[in-house]
Amino acid sequence: MNKYEIMFIVKTTMDEAKVKDTVESAKNLVETLKAKLDSFKEMGERKLAYPIKKEINGYYYVMNVEASVDAIKELDRRLSLDEGILRHLIIKLDEE
User: Fold this and answer.
1) What does the pLDDT look like over 4-35, one tens digit per residue?
2) N or C: which terminal CB in the chain sees fewer CB atoms within 10 Å?
């Protein structure tokens, strides 16, 4: 199991309930794939560096997880399919 940092940006044009559902589904997806969620941090709403799908702001979230390579591949695939998520980034953290 490796440690990863996952950052994702959620659309701000959705209503608040839909934003919460999108975030909860991302958290539940980690648990469904038998990965361990070490920490979850809400970074708040920020202006994007450039428009993404005609959005100029986004809600930023960061998760630290411990997962297998196969779980991360599936997580990457499913986050790409979620229409509420503008962008996501998965970084493998170094072993200390």
Assistant:
1) 999 999 999 999 999 999 999 999 999 999 99
2) C
